[in-house]
Design a protein that fits this description.
The protein is α/β, with parallel strands linked by helices. The chain has 2 domains: 30-237 and 444-451, Aldehyde Dehydrogenase, Chain A, domain 1 (3-Layer(aba) Sandwich), CATH 3.40.605.10; 242-430, Aldehyde Dehydrogenase, Chain A, domain 2. It has helices spanning 24-42, 49-65, 67-78, 82-107, 145-156, 170-183, 196-204, 216-229, 251-263, 280-298, 314-325, 374-382, 397-406, 442-447, 461-467, 476-486, 495-517, and strands spanning 111-112, 123-130, 133-137, 160-164, 189-191, 209-213, 233-236, 241-245, 273-278, 328-331, 335-336, 341-342, 345-348, 365-370, 389-393, 411-414, 435-436, 449-456. The chain has a 7-stranded mixed β-sheet with strand order 10-13-14-9-8-15-16, with helices on both faces. It has a 6-stranded mixed β-sheet with strand order 5-4-3-6-7-17, with helices on both faces. The radius of gyration is 28 Å and the shape is globular. The termini are far apart. The model is unreliable at 1-10, 14-25 and 520-524 (pLDDT under 50). Bound molecules: nicotinamide-adenine-dinucleotide. Belongs to the aldehyde dehydrogenase family. Residues 13-454 form the Aldehyde dehydrogenase domain. Residues 1-17 have a biased composition (Low complexity).
């Protein structure tokens, strides 16, 4: 049964079609919205932990009460199956939110730090401050998950936010812009819809933090705008994530895991394996297994499968169709412009300077490059931008260690794809061209929290006597005393230092007694 007719696939994204009419009026609205959010933040509304918990629980309610509407929007945008929508979007969100609700009060507690000799009688702690009003800009490929995961941490940390979901996933964006105001506080939390014009306008404003997920090119625009106001940013970007396959693996399992990582969401996943590095022998094994695996997963005709997504818009469809046309197809290669269908495709005889190796593929096309050894693979990876993810398939610990020690990337899964992104509280983010900063679980809370160092000193006059060695006039004697007392000597404590510590501790105990017994002691 063909269920992928245009009639059931409502995302007519022939071009970017913003939901908000981009008149001057909507431009002005961005400023007004920021002003409302800022006033709410400055009133201190988001400071009490009870308020934050209420909002997080309202979000939980929103997830539970609107599952079907969310599944429908994802189907309309990307022809996403219910299972993929649940596992890759809603379940991740629900689990992350549960983790946040259970733990954020602990995360929000001040963190007490160890004391040194200088601060022995003081309080040393880090106070967790929200940044203020944060801007969250997200892409279209996982339009629920990528909008709402950062929202959890932003709320838990006590921020207000302005969220701009991607106009490309127009059905999910429309749903979010309807639901969020129904469940969350209307002054603190805002959804702004619209295209690049609106993003540009938002980026002119002075937010307190910008959390951006999208392409490296747009990331540069965001970073440049943030620099003008010195706004801190997290940039969750993309890139080409390699997968190395050794000759020693179980090829049935390896091929399944590689193809799954590439075919989920039709390859429109930031951490999808972008290309394979392996020997000719391994390539033959992968190609031999792929055919039967695809047949098992999607039947004789992938296009009729309810489980295979579509390409989000015409621009991306034509980009991917051209990549196939320019390559040597070993499997698949099927395309259908009417449905924006690109079938799972394996490409061989790939050269490093082929067009398919220049930019992130972001579609169900998997090129295979041949390398002589894992050293070659490491050199190849290191000759390019640092990837968001790296996949290594081998049973040899020595080879796994080589990849871990000799390459740099956002995150690694060994012997599978995508899965490191699902580990709760793992920092998820890139490095270099693939991003700045990280999030997920507790890390999202940290991302949206300014850690304010606080030292509370005593004004006790006796302690001031000890402090006095730092004041002028600077004498040799005082300098030596300071050196002995404060210079770090490594693990071996010098005799001089021990003498000083004994003298200091005795003095400190004496001072403590004075404080405890009160001033009367001196009144004799
Ligand atoms: P995109 O960069 O085109 O768009 C993302 C957002 O940026 C949109 O809201 C868009 O309006 C805005 N934008 C785009 N160009 C802009 C410009 N010139 N000026 C101002 N704003 C601009 O990204 P996309 O196509 O929506 O998503 C795909 C990209 O996102 C891929 O590169 C993918 O790897 C990356 N991505 C990364 C992650 C991650 O977690 N690291 C997750 C998903 C997607």
């Amino acid at each position: 049964m063909v269920i992928t007719q245009r009639s059931s696939f409502k995302n007519n994204n022939s071009s970017r079609s913003p939901l908000v009419k981009q008149t001057n009026e909507s431009m002005v609205d961005c400023e007004k919205i920021l002003a409302v959010a800022r006033r709410a933040f400055e009133d201190g509304r988001t400071k009490p932990l009870e308020f934050r918990e209420k909002q997080l629980r309202a979000l939980q309610k929103m997830y539970n009460e609107n599952e079907d509407a969310m599944f429908q929007a994802l189907k309309d945008d990307l022809h996403k199956s219910k299972t993929e929508s649940y596992v890759m979007e809603l379940m991740l969100l629900k689990n992350d939110l549960q983790n946040v609700i259970e733990n954020f009060k602990n995360w929000a507690k001040p963190k007490v730090y160890p004391k040194s000799l200088v601060t022995l009688f003081d309080k040393t702690f880090v106070h967790k401050d929200p940044y203020g009003v944060v801007l969250i800009i997200s892409p279209w490929n996982y339009p629920l998950q990528l909008c709402l995961l950062p929202v959890h941490g932003a709320i838990a940390a006590g921020n207000c936010f302005v969220l701009q979901p991607s106009e490309v996933a127009c059905n999910t964006t429309k749903l979010l812009s309807q639901l969020i105001p129904q469940y969350l506080d209307n002054d603190c939390y805002h959804v702004v819809t619209g295209g690049i014009d609106v993003t540009v306008k938002l980026l002119e404003l002075k937010f307190d933090y910008i959390f951006f997920t999208g392409s490296s090119n747009a990331g540069r625009v965001v970073q440049a705008a943030a620099v003008k106001h010195l706004i801190p940013t997290t940039l969750e970007l993309g890139g080409k994530s390699p997968a190395y396959v050794g000759d020693d693996v179980d090829f049935e399992i390896t091929t399944r895991r590689l193809l799954w990582g590439k075919c989920v969401n039709a390859g429109q996943t930031c951490v999808a394996p972008d290309y394979i590095l392996c020997s000719r022998k391994a390539e033959r094994e992968i190609l031999a297994k792929a055919k039967s695996i695809f047949r098992e997963w999607y039947g004789r005709d992938v296009k009729t499968s309810p489980d295979f997504c579509r390409i989000v818009n015409d621009r991306h469809y034509h980009r991917l169709a051209k990549l196939i046309a320019d390559s040597k197809v070993a499997f698949g290669g099927e395309t259908d412009e009417e449905e924006r269908f690109i079938g799972p495709t394996l490409i061989v005889d790939v050269k490093p300077d082929d067009s398919i190796m220049q930019e992130e593929i972001f579609g169900p096309i998997l090129p295979i490059l041949n390398v002589e050894s894992h050293y070659d693979a490491i050199n190849f990876i290191n000759s390019r931008d640092k990837p968001l993810a790296l996949y290594v398939f081998t049973n040899e610990k020595r080879i796994i260690d080589s990849f871990l020690n000799e390459t740099s990337c956002g995150g690694v899964t060994v012997n599978d794809t995508l899965m490191h992104a699902s580990v709760e509280d793992f920092p998820f983010g890139g490095i270099g061209q693939s991003g700045i900063g990280a999030y997920h679980g507790k890390v999202t809370f940290k991302t949206f929290t300014h850690r304010k160092s606080v030292l509370v000193r005593s004004l006790n006059p006796l302690l001031e006597k000890i402090n006095a060695i730092r004041y002028p006039p600077y004498t040799e004697k005082r300098l030596n005393l300071l050196k002995t007392a404060l210079e770090r000597k490594g693990s071996i404590i010098s005799y001089e230092c021990i003498k000083f510590i004994i003298a200091f501790v005795s003095g400190a105990i004496f001072s403590l007694l004075v404080v405890l017994l009160g001033k009367d002691y001196w009144d004799f």
